[in-house]
């Protein structure tokens, strides 16, 4: 096992809603190695964003609550920190970019002002130093005439450019970890290609670790070294990227990969579809949350949640069934 | 561009334009127009699926709505079964609407929250089919069954359903009057991956069962490849390329199509690493003020002087393969 710069163990998060308590994250454990790119894949409501928001102390409370777990970053548990302590880390050592570049910038402040803020707050730069650094950052993410464009407001930027600004802002304090929550989902494919290309280039130049949250198995394939697949608030599979795509073990991962049409598809075949709906999580699942939709499900699957079992080198899956034989592991 | 009276052509669109005026100032003078659709021509054959792809703002949804006469076109003709829809009176158009239906992108906004599923699916039957009572109930149940929903759900309200189930309700409503042509406007974009496959499989089954013709509007090129027989690529209000699905994906002749295809991520790290990628610079220009000449020239890696001087003709470079580029021969 390599040394992890971020080590999350047994994380659980719940939300109090008028309909009852939603168990969004149900015991998630993972590590992130230095300068590693980790993909986190799953559908809406699987807990992928909530996991990362919990780690950063960004869950609105109430209604949300982190009920169990630890998240060690440089020997300190992020979950036990006070608001003031975690604010020193958030944005400085761990930065985050969000899905919607339209709503994550303040519309009444100039781009320059928003870029300068973390630099003055976290690094202690003066206004003029921060101004120069902000222009450098904009140039780095590929925005031409950076100096003049610092005076523009967010509405004067296109969607792709706003996401570049978000990336510039996230990288401004040279973080060790960048958490990207569906950063390209709201963008068109040609702009998505620009942004992923930019992130790859910056990762190679700056050497930070990245957690890339997405529902798009295609984007992760070209970007991540290791992938976690989440379902129903659990990590259900974990593997190096090539291994996951060539040799998926969990029935959900198999189904998800089979239900994707490919742009390089040769023959027109019927898409594999997973019947049914994802679980609602009003009760903490006591058995495998995927069992109701799984064609391999055995009796055991309905009674006990499988732990992450080793199924290959660095490859773990939370499933009682060996999908190659259809028998119990 | 193509003959209209051929019998296997269901829909023929001829130089269709849809400009939305921009008004400014105290007296609201018209100062310009957003040229959302600026002269597109294509055919759809009976029983086929034509995929219409492009990025946001390229005019693909406007094109779909204008074909259905939900907007009054600025210019151009739309022939459906040989009848020009643009010249029809409202009353005449209403009769033809039975045969042309639409499935919308957002399954949360396209169903009336105050109507039960039975009322939603039954409404077209009451309006157009003069159906009522027991006959109507039975037909609604049959339709729900057809799209894979429990017929007992007819008395429930839309909020009780998930996104995928709602999209099935929208499909049942579109099928109610047994149309021959359905415009599917991004029917799966709002759905999760595993649910997308369910809905696409359903659309394919229904197509073969009822000999439906689809105009499938989408931005997801992998899904379009999967579902379409032919594909039309749109950029900034005009068509860049139209061809059979194999030609478009194996041998794209327009630089925009090439770039678009290379930008689509492949869910396979080995295949993804092997292919050459074209990364376009910049953003899509505004359709209110499109570039002179070829609309794509500002982002095109092959643009030359001629591209800014005149608009390339949309021409048939190989049988059934249309492309709007001066230099398409280079890629043959």
Briefly characterize the structure:
The complex is a heterodimer of chains A (329) and B (332). Chain A has 329 residues and is α/β, with parallel strands linked by helices. Chain A has ten helices and 14 strands.
Comma- or semicolon-separated keywords:
heterodimer, A: four-stranded antiparallel sheet, 10 helices, 26% strand, globular, B: 332 residues, alpha/beta
Secondary-structure blueprint:
The complex is a heterodimer of chains A (329) and B (332).
Chain A: E1 4-17, E2 20-33, E3 37-41, H1 48-55, E4 64-73, E5 76-77, H2 83-89, E6 94-97, H3 111-123, H4 127-140, H5 146-149, H6 159-171, E7 177-181, H7 189-206, E8 209-214, H8 217-221, E9 226-231, E10 234-240, H9 241-246, H10 251-258, E11 309-312, E12 315-317, E13 321-322, E14 327-328
Parallel strand pairs in A: 3-8, 3-9, 6-7, 7-8
Antiparallel strand pairs in A: 1-2, 1-4, 4-5, 9-10, 10-12, 11-12, 13-14
Helix pairs in contact in A: 3-4, 4-6, 6-7
Chain B: E1 9-24, E2 29-45, E3 49-53, H1 60-67, E4 75-80, E5 83-84, H2 90-97, E6 100-103, H3 117-129, H4 133-146, H5 163-175, E7 181-185, H6 193-210, E8 213-218, H7 221-227, E9 230-235, E10 238-244, H8 245-250, H9 255-263, H10 269-274, H11 305-309, E11 315-318, E12 321-323
Parallel strand pairs in B: 3-8, 3-9, 6-7, 7-8
Antiparallel strand pairs in B: 1-2, 1-4, 4-5, 9-10, 10-12, 11-12
């Amino acid at each position: 096992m390599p040394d992890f710069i971020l080590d999350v163990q047994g994380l659980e998060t719940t939300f109090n809603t008028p309909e009852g308590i939603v168990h969004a994250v149900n015991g998630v454990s993972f590590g992130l190695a230095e300068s590693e790119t980790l993909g986190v894949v799953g559908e809406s409501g699987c807990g992928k964003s909530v996991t990362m928001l919990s780690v950063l102390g960004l869950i609105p409370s109430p209604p949300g609550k982190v009920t169990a777990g630890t998240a060690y970053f440089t020997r300190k548990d992020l979950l036990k920190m006070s608001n003031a302590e975690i604010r020193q880390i958030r944005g400085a050592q761990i930065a985050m970019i969000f899905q919607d570049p339209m709503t994550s910038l303040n519309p009444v402040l100039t781009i320059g002002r928003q870029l300068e803020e973390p630099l003055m707050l976290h690094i202690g730069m003066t206004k003029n130093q921060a101004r120069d650094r902000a222009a450098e950052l904009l140039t780095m993410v590929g925005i031409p005439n950076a100096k003049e464009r610092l005076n523009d407001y967010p509405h004067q930027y296109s969607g792709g450019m706003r996401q570049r600004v978000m990336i510039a802002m996230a990288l401004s304090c040279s973080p060790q970890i960048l958490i990207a929550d569906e950063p390209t989902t709201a963008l068109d494919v040609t702009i998505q290609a620009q942004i992923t290309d930019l992130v790859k280039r910056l990762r190679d130049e700056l050497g930070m670790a990245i957690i890339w949250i997405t529902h798009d198995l295609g984007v992760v394939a070209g970007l991540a070294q290791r992938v976690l697949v989440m379902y129903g608030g659990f990590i259900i599979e974990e593997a190096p990227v090539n291994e996951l795509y060539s040799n998926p073990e969990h029935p959900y991962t198999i189904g998800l990969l089979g239900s994707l049409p490919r742009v390089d598809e040769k023959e027109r075949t019927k898409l594999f579809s997973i019947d049914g709906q994802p679980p609602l999580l009003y009760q903490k699942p006591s058995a495998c949350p995927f069992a109701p939709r799984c064609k391999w499900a055995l009796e055991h699957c309905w009674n006990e949640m499988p732990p992450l079992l080793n199924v290959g080198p660095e490859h773990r899956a939370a499933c009682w069934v060996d999908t190659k034989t259809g028998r119990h592991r | 561009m193509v003959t209209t009276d051929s019998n296997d052509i269901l829909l023929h669109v001829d130089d269709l334009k849809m400009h939305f005026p921009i008004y400014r100032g105290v007296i609201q003078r018209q100062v310009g127009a957003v040229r959302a659709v600026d002269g597109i021509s294509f055919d759809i054959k009976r029983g086929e699926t034509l995929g219409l792809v492009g990025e946001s703002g390229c005019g693909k949804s406007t094109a779909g709505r204008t074909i259905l006469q939900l907007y009054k076109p600025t210019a151009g003709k739309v022939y459906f079964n040989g009848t020009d829809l643009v010249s029809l009176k409202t009353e005449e158009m209403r009769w033809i609407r039975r045969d042309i239906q639409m499935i919308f992108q957002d399954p949360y906004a396209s169903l009336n929250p105050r109507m039960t599923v039975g009322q939603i699916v039954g409404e077209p039957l009451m309006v157009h089919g003069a159906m009522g009572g027991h006959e109507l109930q039975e037909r609604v149940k049959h339709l729900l069954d057809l799209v894979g929903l429990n017929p007992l759900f007819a008395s429930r309200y839309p909020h009780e359903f998930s996104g995928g189930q709602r999209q099935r309700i929208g499909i049942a409503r579109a099928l109610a009057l047994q149309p021959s042509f359905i415009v599917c406007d991004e029917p799966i974009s709002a759905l999760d991956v595993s649910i997308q496959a369910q809905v696409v499989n359903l659309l394919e089954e229904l197509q073969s069962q009822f000999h439906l013709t689809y105009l499938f509007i989408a931005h997801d090129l992998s899904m379009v490849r999967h579902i379409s027989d032919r594909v039309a690529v749109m950029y900034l209000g005009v068509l860049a390329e139209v061809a059979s699905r194999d030609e478009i994906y194996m041998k794209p002749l327009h630089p925009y199509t090439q770039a678009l295809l290379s930008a689509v991520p492949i869910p396979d790290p080995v295949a993804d690493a092997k292919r050459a990628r074209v990364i376009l610079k910049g953003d899509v220009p505004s359709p209110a003020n499109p570039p002179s000449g070829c609309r794509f020239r500002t982002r095109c890696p092959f643009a030359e002087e001629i591209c800014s001087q005149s608009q390339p003709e949309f021409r048939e470079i190989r049988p059934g393969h249309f492309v709007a580029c001066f230099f398409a021969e280079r890629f043959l």
